[in-house]
Amino acid sequence: MRAESILRAMMALYLGVFVLYLFAPLVIMGAAAFNESRFPTVIPWQGTTLEWFSAMWADAAMWRSLWTSVLIAVAVVVIVVPVGTAAALVLTSLHARARGVAYAVMVSPLLTPGVVIGISTLILWRQLGVGGGIFLIVLAQSTFIISYVMLMVMARLQRFDRTQEEAALGLGASRMMVFRRVLLPFLRPALLASGGLAVLQSIENYNTTLFVRGFETPLTVFIATKVRTGLTPAVNALALIIILATVIGAIAYEIARRRKAA
Amino acid sequence: MGELKNRFGPGLSTIFVTLVIFWLAGMVLAPNLMMIDYALRPNLPPQALGGPEDTYSLANILYLAGEPTHRAIFFKTIWASALVAGVTFLVCYPIAFWLAQRATTGQLAVAMLLIIIPFFINEVLRTLAWFIILAYRGPLNSALMNIGLIDAPIRWQGDGGVLAAMVYAYILFMLLPIYNAIESLEKAQIEAARDLGAPTWRIHTRVVIPHAKAGIATGFVFTFMLAAGSYVAPALLGSPGSRWFTEIIYNWFFEGGDWNRGAAYALVLLVLCLAVVLVTLKLVRVNLTDVAK
Amino acid sequence: MSHSVELAGIGMTFGTTRAVSDVTFKVAAGEFFSILGPSGCGKTTILRMIAGFIEPTEGRVLIGERDMAGLGPDQRPTAMIFQSLALFPLMSVRDNIAFGLEARGMSRPERRAKADDLLRLIALEGYGDRMSGELSGGQRQRVAIARALAVEPGVLLLDEPLSALDLKLRQHMRAELRALQKRTGVTFIYITHDQSEALAMSDRVAVMSDGLLQQVASPRALYDNPATPFVARFVGETNAIPGRIIQVQDGHARIDTALGSLTGRAGHGAQAGQPGTIYIRPEALMPGGTENTLTAGIERVDFEGSFALVHGRFDGGEALAASIPSTRLAEAPEPGSRASFGFAPGHAVVLGDG
Predict the structure, then answer these.
(1) For the whole model, what pTM was predicted?
(2) Of A8, B152, C249, C283, which has the fewest CB atoms closer than 10 Å, so is most exposed?
(3) Which residues of C touch A185 (CB under 8 A)?
(4) B91 in contact with chain A, both atoms CB, cutoff 8 A
(5) Domains of chain C (ranges plus CATH)?
(6) Does the beta-carbon distance from C74 to A173 stay under 8 Å?
């Protein structure tokens, strides 16, 4: 059993290294926000300061780009949740062969590189006289985020007992009422989760957005541009706040989910 | 469609079908068709559009084949993306196995949360983190010099930096499908193999990996596709000598001003990715339905 | 208010499969009517055609003398209880029961009052605010019934609603269903593959096989006078001995079998000179009887409590099943021995084959 315990120790060591690998970059990036150095780094440590947070706070361009991202994310959610849900419902009502084809087309945006989605959207709308901007960003992002929503709603639908719909119809409910009172409440958790995922996907998107942004500067573009044109730890301060917000959000979501499951 | 109408009534099903058509026709099919149209036509000034030179040809695609720098970058992007997928697999496999077969329920919950948290964070920020770590006078070089592994700082920016950032960025896309696949393997099968005297590596090559084949293929496909289509990592961490195919495409659109050639290059990238997906799935006999869990 | 249900020559074809062919019967208003058959016999299809979830490809469904063609499930005076019960898991018990009333636009206080009445009827007073997932199997069952009764249906359709319950509860629910039906006077059409369930509860039973109606009769008549070989074998246990009918006279038929000449009541299709089979119930076989004697090799005797079942093989090779009341257990033959049995002609029936 000696070989067994060596393996076990190696596995534990590897797990430790892996977690370090996952978090060290984030910790270093966050820590650099407190370093007085003009370039974001942790070595050498030139003194602890909060000045980069106030610099970030005072950066009007940052606020504009944050606002742009939020606006886009809201518009994306408004589009993707209904369309993704409709797609899942249409798909489950198709016959086997048509379903296979429709399914392939519906997941194809997930297998298409993000830059290609941005490019093809840009080209189509140029033909129609519309240039890059918020409208195209929303449209291009929605193209593949709808696929995620569709998959999440499908997963939930597969656990739906269709006889509930029949029972409701048999009790005299109209089809609208069956949808509103029976199916929608059942889908609610999936709709909320996919809405949350859509917000994250939208705010974090870069590859697709880059091509259709026109003169807009959403948050990711703002950060990427900073890296090239003059990175200061103010960006790290922003990153740290985003990270903390995401981590708290993720933990809260997880706790809520477990409490519900229990 | 009859089934849909029967289930939701004419009003709702019309709304559903309209929404789906709006998505599939207007947002998925039409843009791609227009991109193909662009890719097959020459770049002409507005007054020459529709004129005698405005004909369909493969010239834009052949241009890629004939231009040595672009061709080299194209092939480099392919093998580098495959390398990213391979390294990501090596990093993820032990973790996926441990999560699926060894971890207790409590460990699993904590580990999953730890693994997922970094992936809720923006890809641009994750790349930025590596930008800081790998900086010439950054923490990694200092650390390596302090422990005496190197004498002078190393310039990580370039292929090495891109690889590091991409592996880091796509871990989850490799880990989750493999975890799901190994999780469905009965513990008794591993115990049976051990009981029959198989050494650890053989248990993995003969029992676990064949069982997890579909999950591994899915992970490869996704990682490859994301790497080949990535723009952030090469843009932020690359060097002039490590250009990525997506950067060439970007230049055609926003610096070279030849959208037709850009569309042709994008089309080549799309076809490459779809081909890799379909061929891989065919090879391991996995259905598209099983890919998107 | 309860309705009669009439099926006039209905048939159903799914693609190339014929699920139901030419079924005709009439259920009287207020009757407890069961449709009995093995799985895949078409009984659920019939129920779904009555409910309006599917339209028959031939024939007509009349409920309360009205033709139901083209009417959806929401427009028919029926309510259905599903095998899975299909309670709405995200609604309280009260909202479940009141769902049909909500669909009819009844105001909230009225709905509430009526749901509480029904909760009292099913003896679940005070459970209205629970979620359906918090109830036991029997309670869920009763909620499903109350939900269906809330809309005051003329006909209640039940699709094997007891199949998920354990034996004890199932027997208890049988009695409760029967009592509920008598109390409300609603027409019940009950689907089951469990013959003892059908025989115990129903006023009349329809037996189906392979999409064809075999017989419609009272439970007693079904057991004593099966109309077809299928019914004879499917309803209750039986000893079947084939042969050739040699004489039919005064309601009795004589049949020549490998075990000799036997006499029973003449049933459907019994004609002299035709091949036929005599069906004898296990409880009709008496050890050592002198009339219609049969000899058999005894393989085992299973003691089941109130009776013992004797298994073996007749000399012609057919399986033997004879039940002996425990009070006469001393007369049961020993395993491994040979024994002879007799039966009264009135306790056996001869049917023509085919």
Answers:
(1) 0.81
(2) B152
(3) 90-91
(4) yes
(5) 5-224 (3.40.50.300), 237-352 (2.40.50.100)
(6) yes
